[in-house]
Amino acid sequence: MRRESWLIIYCVCAGALGWVLLLAQPLHPTSPQLLWLLALALLVESTGFRAPPADSVSLVGVVLLTAALVLGPADGALLAALSGLVFGTAAPLFYRRAKTPFYIFARPFLRSGVRALGVLGSYGAASALAGPAPSLLAQLVALLVCYPAIIHLNRVIREYIQGGPTGVGIWWRSTWRSSLSTELLPLPIAWLGAAIYLRLGSLYMLLAGAGLFVVGLTVRRATRQVQSQRRSVQELALLNQVSRAIIRADMDVGELCELIYREASKLVDTSSFHLGLFAAQGDQYTLVVRVQQRVRLDPISMDLPMGDGIVGWMRETGQSLLVEDFELEMEKLPARPRYQSDHPPRSGIYVPLSDGEHVIGTISIQSYRPRAFDINDMRMLSLIADQAAVAISKARVFDQASKRARQLQAIHSVGEQITAILDMDELLPSVVSLIRERFGYHPVHIFSIEPDGRLLFRASTAESEGRSRLTMLHTGQGLIGVAAQSSMPLLVNDVAADPRYISDDPNTCAELAVPLRFGAQNLGVLDVQSDTANAFTNDDMFIMQTLAGQIAVAIESARAFQAQREEAWTLNALLQVAENLARASTLEDLLPTIVRLPPLLLGCTRCYCWEWDAAHGHFAPLAAYGLADDQRKRFFATLLDDASAPMLAEARDSAGLVAACNVEADMRRLPSVVELGGGTLVAHALMARNLPLGALVLDYESPRHDLPPRTQAMITGIANQIASALEAAFLAIDAAQAAHLEEELRVAREIQTALLPSEVPHIPGWGIAADWRSARLVGGDFYDFWPLHGPDHQPQIEQAAPILGQSEKLGFVIADVSDKGVPAAMFMALSRSLVRAAALDGSSASTALMRANRWITRDSDSAMFVTLFYGILELQTGCMRFSCAGHNPPLLVRADGSVEELKTPGIALGVLEEARLYETAVDFHPGDVLVCYTDGITEAINNADEEFGVPRLTEVIRQQREASADAIRRAIGEALGRFTEGRPPFDDITMVIIKREPTA
Predict the structure, then answer these.
(1) 484 CB-near residues (< 8 Å, 6+ apart)
(2) pTM
(3) Are 14 and 144 part of one and the same domain?
(4) Which residue range forms the structural domain that includes residue 760?
(5) pLDDT digit string, tens, across residues 49-92
(6) What's the rounded Cα separation, in Å, for the pair 229 and 221?
(7) Are residues 59 and 176 in the same domain?
(8) Is residue 443 reached through a cis peptide bond, with omega within 30 degrees of 0 on the bond before it?
(9) Which of 53, 521, 939, 983 is geometrically suited to a Cys-Cys bond with 271, CB 3.0 to 4.6 A?
(10) Number of independent structural domains in the chain
């Protein structure tokens, strides 16, 4: 049960005892004397002062004893009880304490009951000593002795329940002077008060009460001044004591924190005191000392990230904080408190424990009164915190050093065991037992990694069930398998939150798996566990890695001789494999060798090889050895997918070896091979550059054929060499096919280039230039020129002379196919021929293009289309009629520098068979320049991914408009090259420039 609960129980019981005794007396609650004496008692008690962490101290005892002498024991006890109950209930508001059940009900009830008990007990003692009717003097003596004794006994009990012996000591040191001078010594004045009341009357008693009220105010003021002066004088002495106490303290963090709390209590009010420490790593924060309203609470730990709340802010900045009133300063605080409470504190001091630049913890004190602390309190607490931080840091270092010494001693013992025991079966169980005994881990395992990826159990402190489960681990499985696979230590302080963890012990909360590495080789895994979360640190990892190194040396020493002898045989066998594979110059020569070598070197009856076709998702047979003719026909006629050959799929996915030691028990592993005979199948993936090429299968006649590590290593070595040889053969075939394809592309480019005009037309008064560059070896752009005659002439389809002497019109076209590469080149050849055929009869531009569109749509089965600009130029007049089928609008730059884009409505050819195209006309004047282009120019990008764009193209033409057509072509090409900074073109680049000379 918590201290606060015990405290409330005590308050209720003690208060009830007083009230029961009081109610048993004959009372006169409506007596006028009782009422105005009660008012006087409340006024005098309100002049009291509080010496933290004790109760308020006042002269109310004089009034209560006077009332007891005047009114008698019953009514005097009633007045004492009522004054305690009323003032006690109002005290939380008066002193701004938390409005908890303890302060609102339990403590006032205790105060009233104990006061009544003090008055009644005093009269009981007087009656026992002086008879049933004791004199006034005897009553006074009894009251002076018994009443303060009962009151202070109650305070001692209450403080003990709240804070134990430490709480009693703090209360006594902070209270005895003020209690003696203000509460005890003035009590005899009650005799004078009683005499005034009995002999002079109520009026003089009222004046005496007023004087007592004034005296109370004066005493409070004087006491506060004395306390302030005394506090200033004592601070340095106390601070010196604190320093000396901290220096003399043992190197124990817990004891240091308790000492800091006790010493801080001498300087400031520690009714609500927190001392918390941050973990050396991470965000864990532990409140080592936790006192709330003088009630000692148990330590508590939590996650507190940097900058979270006031404590996180102190950790981040290393600064102290004084809050005089939370209600007034909340919006101005650098951080908000984390707690949520109906009765939050009103003021507080928050000081970091800083060791150099690192904040290792915090000290905070709080009060439910505003302005309970000042800058001097924060200064004193900061001085204590600075010395405490250094001491705590040293204690932590000492604790770590002690722990490291113990760990190193354990490592030394384990090392002696390793060197003393040569039998591996005896050595490893001794090692795991010693690790558990010395370090307390629960449990400890050692595994070795086998060539097939299995983690073989070697030694463990686990029970038999866990041990059986752990023998089935593989690399990559569970935390142990991950550490084995990565060859890196793995620390998990909360296994419940890690999906990789495989539970074998319900008590395990944290696990540390360390690989047993000998040089660059990983021999196994040392696994230690703990039944406590967050049990492992980097120190544990260092210790376990040191142990793992020694264990790895022991394991390697035991294996060394056997490994050397097996290595010699293996290297000789692999050398023979390499030599035989190197003799095969073609795939046809290589395949028989592939399936013949394993039976010779490994003793299998039959051997098969498949190629993995990733595009179609199946294994295709490549070669087989040891089969009859009819078996060979069935073998080569069967394609295997993952469902029909799960063993091959498993080998491919694992990129390693898969064995089926009893094929009769599981024919589903590779049914097409099981039908051929055999008892044990071993499949190994053929990998090249981490990609599967196929699978090699060894077929042993006997079931459960022994596959020791040496044999498995040989299979892996042979499979790797076969994979390299197959990759080389496949690459040679691919290279030959690539060379053949490149030759075909070269011929296609020559054909495509031949389809383009070899020269541009030479026409007097006109300048014409053209350029064509494909982004790939072949492209989809094209341009063309052809002469067109008047209506009296027949079209000259065969005329392709560059000099047009008799022609009245010039037809020209520029086009861009939607794709690139070989498909675009083929579509380009078709489109060029159909457009030329549709235009040579002299039809208008739109008519010719609509005719060509119908032909292209009907003759082409592809989804490609072509954008195209077709113009008919009358050479004598300079009038040009044109139609644009979704192509980039050509730019017509006039001699004066103005620019026009030539557009007509229409879509690309090859999209809709009955597309509607339009045409329009424009006149060329001397000096005008027409630039037709494809989007490869405007959409060219530079290293900043910016497009060349139409504006840049327009500006180049405008600047070069007075130059010749060919000079303009070169200028555009140079500007494009400068812009792209040498980047290869992403799209085909084509342009046609036509200029009417100024002299035309």
Answers:
(1) 447, 449, 455, 475, 476, 513, 515, 522, 524, 525
(2) 0.37
(3) yes
(4) 756-996
(5) 766 555 677 888 888 888 888 888 888 888 888 888 888 787 77
(6) 13
(7) yes
(8) yes
(9) 53
(10) 5
